Amino acid sequence: MKQSGSVKWKSPSNIALVKYWGKYGKQLPRNPSISFTLDAAHTITSVDYIYDPETVGPLLNFTFEGKSKPEFKKKILAFLVDIAGEVPVLKHMQLTIDSWNSFPHSSGIASSASSMSAIAMCLVDIERQINKGSDIDLYKASHLARLGSGSASRSVFPKMSIWGEMEKYKSSNKFAIPYHAKIDPIFQTFHDDILIVSKTEKAVSSRAGHALMENNPYAAARFQQAHDNIENLITAMTAGDLDTFGQIVEQEALTLHALMMASSPPYILLEPATLTLISKIQNFRKEQNVPVYFTLDAGPNIHMLYPHSAVAAVSVLLDEIKSYCVDGLIISDRVGNGPDKMEG
Asked: Is pTM beyond 0.85 here?
């Protein structure tokens, strides 16, 4: 029977505290990771659909912020074709998709995480509607999001997520799981101020960086380190131990970039301003005894993490370091509650 409808979802980006670097097979991680789900940095995706058993699909019309983006459409269509075996209704569907980001391009925020998780949420919602289901399957959404972007698997759950096999936490390589119930409440108040030191496109993409881990001489030790760091991080966060949390998170950020420098060929994504800001954050923490820490994704921009109780103190630091950011750009975010279904 022919059916039509519309769905709209808002889904956030996330920031990994323990990083995944290196993958195999079909978007499977070489090591587990754990992340904060963000709030302000999000993608809103609307999908109008027509389901018709006579249609040979998926057929796609795609715009980004109301404008045609052929390169984005090509990627999304390939994703839809790839997952049609797991979402069978796609084989008989025409979709009109528009996506909009709350943050600027090349701003140091993982747009693939928010965009692919938003599309995944729309797809499981559409499948639910057509099959007359009752609940949104977040685990299936996480699984589908992973097939589009590995880190996107972590964006569909509130507060914190683990992605990657760890027997103790019953986590999986195929989808992320929520993990925040036992964490000290102070971590649910955390802010993430993103310091934009460069808007230039990365010289080496994350996809290429993951591939270079295959021949990295430190890969095996790194994968074990990630397991150990997740264990130690969760222990610290359960106890409300901010110091140990900060030590692990900062080590993880620097390890990620050390792995890039040890790749063959080696490469460096850090900028001089990145190193300056790291030093200023660490010195401020030591001199003022304020729990403020940094992390990095696969790029030069810094994510500055701190609890809400430190907002007033950190505002002094923000005033001091703003001049090191491009056009003074600092994007303010915080730990959030995951995707939201929207009206209209």
From this structure: yes
**Domain residues for 145?**
3-181
Q: Are residues 30 and 160 in the same domain?
A: yes
Question: Pick from 295, 310, 298, 284: which is nearest to 247 by CA?
Answer: 295
Residues 211 and 310 in one domain: yes
What's at 14, amino acid-wise? Answer: N
The residue out of 181, 209, 229 marking a domain boundary is 181
Quick one: how many helices (H) and strands (E) in the chain? 8, 14
* pLDDT tens digits, 6-18: 999 999 999 999 9
Count of domains forming the chain: 2
CA 108, 235, 163, 270 torsion: positive or negative? Answer: positive
Distance between alpha carbon 187 and the CA centroid of its chain, in Å? 18
Q: What is the CATH number of the domain that holds 219?
A: 3.30.70.890
Report the chain's C-alpha Rg in angstroms: 20
User: What's the pLDDT at 291?
Assistant: 98
d(CA 40, CA 193): 11
Q: Looking at the domain assignment, is residue 225 inside a domain?
A: yes
Q: Are residues 202 and 134 located together in one domain of the fold?
A: no
pLDDT of residue 109: 73
CB 207 within 8 A of CB 298: no
**189 shares its domain with 170:** no
Closest by CA to 164, choosing from 36, 32, 35, 34, is 32
Determine if the peptide bond prior to 266 is cis (ω within 30°).
no
Give SS3 for 64. Answer: strand
For residues 33 and 222, what is the distance between their CA atoms, to the nearest angstrom? 12
162: alpha, beta or left? (left if phi > 0; alpha if psi -120 to 50):
beta
Averaged over 215-241, what is the pLDDT? 98
